[in-house]
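Q: Sequence in, structure out?
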Amino acid sequence: MTVKFVTHSLETNDITVMGNVSDVATVRGNTISRIGAVEGQEQQNPAAIHLNFEMTHPPNEMLVWMMSVPDAVELGLQLLAMGIEDQPSPKIDDVRDRLSQLIAELDRTLQVSH
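A: Exactly. Output:
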């Protein structure tokens, strides 16, 4: 049974997470991982994306988001579109270049892990 696993650092500023008005936490990105589907068991164990955050308030705790690849793509596209909405063309070009670099890096990493 083979599973491809890739992890990269995820450096963010403070992100506020709320369950309700009285349940507020502050987190910072730690790692982002792509865990491949289990070969031969793709339906039961599909690929997934995990985001790990370190909690800064309250300290010494971890928050993890686990989602399917299609959900990660949709979430990423929505966040990206909203984040660059009012940016000038050169900034959008920088984002496009960075995205190309990340995809190429992931592709190289997955090629090496065969």
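The chain has one domain: 5-112.
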